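TA notes, week 10

Several of you asked for a full example with nothing omitted. So below is the full record: C-alpha coordinates for the whole chain, then the designed sequence directly under it. When grading your own attempts, check the secondary structure regions first.
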Protein backbone atom coordinates (compact mmCIF):
# COMPACT_ATOMS: atom_id res chain seq x y z
CA UNK A 1 0.00 0.00 0.00
CA UNK A 2 1.13 3.52 -0.82
CA UNK A 3 2.60 5.56 2.02
CA UNK A 4 -0.04 8.23 2.68
CA UNK A 5 2.64 10.47 4.16
CA UNK A 6 4.45 10.71 0.82
CA UNK A 7 1.78 10.91 -1.89
CA UNK A 8 4.25 12.34 -4.46
CA UNK A 9 7.36 10.60 -3.09
CA UNK A 10 10.34 12.37 -1.57
CA UNK A 11 12.19 15.33 -3.11
CA UNK A 12 14.72 14.14 -5.67
CA UNK A 13 17.11 16.22 -7.73
CA UNK A 14 20.70 15.68 -8.77
CA UNK A 15 23.07 17.14 -11.31
CA UNK A 16 23.08 20.55 -12.94
CA UNK A 17 20.18 22.91 -12.49
CA UNK A 18 18.84 23.74 -15.94
CA UNK A 19 16.88 26.91 -16.67
CA UNK A 20 13.83 24.77 -17.46
CA UNK A 21 13.90 22.99 -14.10
CA UNK A 22 14.37 26.26 -12.22
CA UNK A 23 11.53 27.87 -14.18
CA UNK A 24 9.21 24.96 -13.39
CA UNK A 25 10.04 25.12 -9.67
CA UNK A 26 9.37 28.88 -9.61
CA UNK A 27 6.11 28.35 -11.49
CA UNK A 28 5.04 25.71 -8.97
CA UNK A 29 5.83 28.06 -6.08
CA UNK A 30 3.91 30.83 -7.81
CA UNK A 31 0.86 28.61 -8.32
CA UNK A 32 0.83 27.02 -4.87
CA UNK A 33 -1.41 29.54 -3.05
CA UNK A 34 -4.09 29.32 -5.77
CA UNK A 35 -3.82 25.52 -5.91
CA UNK A 36 -4.18 25.23 -2.14
CA UNK A 37 -7.16 27.58 -2.20
CA UNK A 38 -8.81 25.50 -4.92
CA UNK A 39 -8.14 22.28 -2.98
CA UNK A 40 -10.00 23.49 0.13
CA UNK A 41 -12.76 25.53 -1.52
CA UNK A 42 -16.18 24.13 -0.70
CA UNK A 43 -15.01 21.90 2.16
CA UNK A 44 -17.10 22.01 5.36
CA UNK A 45 -15.60 22.80 8.75
CA UNK A 46 -15.88 19.11 9.59
CA UNK A 47 -14.03 18.13 6.42
CA UNK A 48 -11.32 20.71 7.16
CA UNK A 49 -10.90 19.14 10.59
CA UNK A 50 -10.39 15.62 9.17
CA UNK A 51 -6.85 14.17 9.43
CA UNK A 52 -5.38 13.41 5.99
CA UNK A 53 -4.27 10.03 7.43
CA UNK A 54 -4.70 8.23 10.76
CA UNK A 55 -2.69 10.17 13.32
CA UNK A 56 -1.82 12.89 10.82
CA UNK A 57 -2.59 16.60 10.68
CA UNK A 58 -6.03 17.80 9.70
CA UNK A 59 -6.47 19.62 6.39
CA UNK A 60 -6.70 22.84 8.42
CA UNK A 61 -3.38 22.13 10.14
CA UNK A 62 -1.77 21.22 6.80
CA UNK A 63 -2.71 24.62 5.34
CA UNK A 64 -1.39 26.48 8.40
CA UNK A 65 1.74 24.30 8.38
CA UNK A 66 2.53 25.30 4.79
CA UNK A 67 2.39 28.94 5.94
CA UNK A 68 4.57 28.19 9.01
CA UNK A 69 7.08 26.34 6.89
CA UNK A 70 7.29 28.81 4.04
CA UNK A 71 7.66 31.77 6.42
CA UNK A 72 10.73 29.97 7.78
CA UNK A 73 11.91 29.18 4.24
CA UNK A 74 11.60 32.84 3.18
CA UNK A 75 13.65 33.89 6.21
CA UNK A 76 16.33 31.31 5.38
CA UNK A 77 16.64 32.57 1.80
CA UNK A 78 17.00 36.13 3.01
CA UNK A 79 19.53 35.22 5.70
CA UNK A 80 21.63 33.32 3.16
CA UNK A 81 21.49 36.26 0.73
CA UNK A 82 22.62 38.80 3.31
CA UNK A 83 25.04 36.85 5.51
CA UNK A 84 27.97 34.53 4.91
CA UNK A 85 26.75 30.91 5.12
CA UNK A 86 24.44 31.46 8.11
CA UNK A 87 23.40 28.63 10.39
CA UNK A 88 19.62 28.66 10.32
CA UNK A 89 17.18 27.81 13.09
CA UNK A 90 15.04 24.68 12.76
CA UNK A 91 11.58 24.79 14.30
CA UNK A 92 9.41 22.10 15.93
CA UNK A 93 6.78 21.81 13.20
CA UNK A 94 4.46 19.46 15.12
CA UNK A 95 4.45 21.82 18.11
CA UNK A 96 3.84 24.81 15.83
CA UNK A 97 0.91 22.93 14.26
CA UNK A 98 -0.51 22.32 17.74
CA UNK A 99 -0.57 26.02 18.73
CA UNK A 100 -4.00 27.70 18.69
CA UNK A 101 -3.37 29.77 15.55
CA UNK A 102 -3.34 26.50 13.58
CA UNK A 103 -7.07 26.21 14.41
CA UNK A 104 -7.99 29.49 12.72
CA UNK A 105 -9.91 29.73 9.46
CA UNK A 106 -7.80 28.41 6.56
CA UNK A 107 -8.50 31.67 4.72
CA UNK A 108 -6.11 33.46 7.07
CA UNK A 109 -3.16 31.35 5.93
CA UNK A 110 -4.33 31.30 2.30
CA UNK A 111 -4.12 35.11 2.26
CA UNK A 112 -0.78 34.99 4.06
CA UNK A 113 0.53 32.56 1.43
CA UNK A 114 -0.75 34.79 -1.41
CA UNK A 115 1.38 37.66 -0.12
CA UNK A 116 4.31 35.57 1.05
CA UNK A 117 4.67 33.70 -2.24
CA UNK A 118 4.37 36.93 -4.24
CA UNK A 119 7.42 38.23 -2.37
CA UNK A 120 9.22 34.88 -2.30
CA UNK A 121 8.87 34.21 -6.03
CA UNK A 122 9.75 37.79 -6.91
CA UNK A 123 12.91 37.49 -4.80
CA UNK A 124 13.87 34.07 -6.18
CA UNK A 125 13.34 35.17 -9.81
CA UNK A 126 15.85 38.00 -9.22
CA UNK A 127 18.71 35.74 -8.11
CA UNK A 128 21.96 35.64 -10.05
CA UNK A 129 23.83 32.41 -10.69
CA UNK A 130 26.20 33.36 -7.90
CA UNK A 131 23.33 33.92 -5.47
CA UNK A 132 21.70 30.61 -6.44
CA UNK A 133 24.95 28.92 -5.43
CA UNK A 134 25.02 30.54 -1.97
CA UNK A 135 24.39 28.24 0.96
CA UNK A 136 23.07 28.16 4.48
CA UNK A 137 23.72 25.50 7.09
CA UNK A 138 20.88 23.52 8.60
CA UNK A 139 22.13 22.12 11.94
CA UNK A 140 20.68 18.67 11.12
CA UNK A 141 20.84 18.46 7.30
CA UNK A 142 24.10 20.33 6.75
CA UNK A 143 24.91 22.77 3.94
CA UNK A 144 22.13 23.55 1.46
CA UNK A 145 22.48 25.61 -1.72
CA UNK A 146 19.72 28.13 -2.38
CA UNK A 147 19.00 26.59 -5.79
CA UNK A 148 18.38 23.22 -4.14
CA UNK A 149 16.22 24.88 -1.50
CA UNK A 150 13.98 26.31 -4.23
CA UNK A 151 13.36 22.75 -5.42
CA UNK A 152 12.81 21.51 -1.88
CA UNK A 153 10.08 24.10 -1.25
CA UNK A 154 8.43 23.64 -4.65
CA UNK A 155 8.25 19.94 -3.71
CA UNK A 156 7.12 20.76 -0.15
CA UNK A 157 4.12 22.74 -1.38
CA UNK A 158 3.04 20.01 -3.82
CA UNK A 159 3.62 17.36 -1.12
CA UNK A 160 1.15 18.97 1.28
CA UNK A 161 -1.27 19.90 -1.51
CA UNK A 162 -1.37 16.20 -2.39
CA UNK A 163 -2.20 15.33 1.24
CA UNK A 164 -5.36 17.39 0.81
CA UNK A 165 -6.31 16.34 -2.73
CA UNK A 166 -5.65 12.64 -2.09
CA UNK A 167 -7.82 12.68 1.06
CA UNK A 168 -10.62 14.42 -0.90
CA UNK A 169 -10.28 11.79 -3.64
CA UNK A 170 -10.37 8.87 -1.22
CA UNK A 171 -13.42 10.34 0.53
CA UNK A 172 -15.12 11.26 -2.74
CA UNK A 173 -15.53 14.85 -1.51
CA UNK A 174 -14.51 16.62 -4.71
NI1 LIG B 1 5.87 19.96 5.73
Amino acid sequence: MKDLRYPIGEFEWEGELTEDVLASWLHELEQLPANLREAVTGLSEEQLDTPYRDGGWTIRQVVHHVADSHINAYTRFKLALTEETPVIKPYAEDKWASLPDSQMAVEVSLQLLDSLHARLVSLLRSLSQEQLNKTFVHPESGSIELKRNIGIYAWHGKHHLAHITSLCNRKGWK
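The chain has one domain: 29-171. Use that as a sanity check on your answer.
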